Amino acid sequence: MLSSLSDGRVIQFDLYSSCLLYIINNRNRADILVAAGATVVKDPTKVKLDMVIVDSLSLPPHVTAVPATVAKILRNVNNSNTRTTPVIDLSWATQCIIQRSRISMDHERYRPKIGSIGRDKIVQLFSIKVKSADSMVRYEVGDPVIFGKKHLNTSIGRIMGISHDRTTKKNCVEIKVLELHNESELMEGGQNASVVNIDDIDLQAPVVMLGGRHFNDVKESWKETIYIQKKPPSKNTKQLINST
Length: 244
Description:
Elements: E1 8-13, E2 19-24, H1 27-35, E3 39-40, E4 51-54, H2 68-80, E5 87-89, H3 90-99, E6 122-125, E7 127-131, E8 136-140, E9 144-147, E10 155-165, E11 170-177, E12 179-181, E13 185-187, E14 195-199, E15 203-206, E16 208-210, H4 212-218, E17 226-230, H5 235-243
Parallel strand pairs: 2-4, 4-5, 13-17, 16-17
Antiparallel strand pairs: 1-2, 1-3, 6-10, 7-8, 9-10, 9-15, 10-11, 11-14, 12-13
């Protein structure tokens, strides 16, 4: 029975297409959804869930085994429903808000591996947490970041991939370097951009990229990690420049 599931909250997510989510052990993400317009279901005992939301960072290969609490909840949820309830990563709900639509759940980045993850030495990840000075910072594939060795010059790039070595327990992060213009503008470099591989400990901070109008609204409060997203020149513009 859902009434026995005390380690999470059932959320009615109506923003882009109604669905019922059961969020396990992550009050902060549940609060974000509520702030965005979702509502908490007060009596979840008779509802049929559309999905269960979990944090993939609490599952293998980030940890040795599926936590007992999570495994118990998943068993109880499926016993309460006539069909298997899909398990979806927290980042799916976040991306729905960012993209202002109910995006597909079919991409593998939103489908955490609950069972066996195989015997491959190298596993591809979509998110990791890295220890900073006073907290753990979450990074995901696609995030723009500041990176570099401490006390040395840093660069800015976008995370293109994360590889986890199950033997050494270390993560290798593939980053495409972004071009910095006028101290506050970042531009994608295209196919010719440099790609580097770094250890996850060399990730320094997330970066926020905004349009010019939004940048001016908040630049005073986020001076060091906020930039204007600059579009690269079109092919026609490049041809015009090359011909002059």
